[in-house]
Amino acid sequence: MKNYIQPGENLTLTMAAAVTSGDGVLVGSIFGVAQGDAAVGDAVVLVRRGVFNLPKVSAEAWSAGDPVYWDDTAKSLTSVATGNQLVGAAVEDAANPSAIGVVLLDGTIRLAAA
Questions:
Q1: CA–CA separation, 67 vs 20, rounded Å?
Q2: Who's near 73: CB < 8 A, 6+ residues apart?
Q3: Is residue 26 situated within a structural domain?
Q4: Alpha helix segments (H runs only) across the chain
Q5: pTM: predicted TM-score of the whole model, two decimal places
Q6: Contact predicate 34/22, CB 8 Å
Q7: How far apart are alpha carbons 26 and 34 in whole angstroms?
Q8: pLDDT tens digits, one per residue of 73-95
Q9: Is 111 a domain residue?
Q10: Does 3 fall in a domain?
Q11: Pick from 49, 56, 19: which is nearest to 34 by CA?
């Protein structure tokens, strides 16, 4: 194929805000985890597939397999669909309270829930 560019699991995108390595980042409908630090206007690689420890809403309990959404305002994962971007599924149960959730990102692009 002459039109193939790359697998798409890792994408280099320009950041609208500063990010630190390991941060969850939403660019339009593309969600990934920053592979490095970047200032506003810099490019950084976003890893879109894999299992990650990411910040979650502390007051939520999750079960393995539950869908998880990215709240771009709070910069954390949540079980609340409305207004947030579906990014993957919980890999492990997460207690209430807990600040970190283990999440599988599958690299699928989805629209934010209304």
A1: 25
A2: none
A3: yes
A4: none
A5: 0.94
A6: yes
A7: 10
A8: 999 999 999 999 999 999 999 99
A9: no
A10: no
A11: 19
Sheet holding 30-34, edge to edge: 10-14, 43-47, 30-34, 24-27
CATH of the domain at 100: 2.40.300
pLDDT tens profile 27-81 = 999 999 999 999 999 999 999 999 999 999 999 999 999 999 999 999 999 999 9
Q: How many domains in the chain?
A: 1
Contact 38, 95 (CB under 8 A): no
Give the phi and the psi of residue 13 in degrees, each rounded to 5: -130, 155
Interatomic CA distance for residues 34 and 10, integer angstroms: 10
Structural domain span for residue 62: 10-106
User: Does 2 fall in a domain?
Assistant: no
Residue showing tokens 């692009």: 109
Classify the phi-psi angles of 8: left when phi > 0, otherwise alpha if psi is within -120 to 50, otherwise beta: left
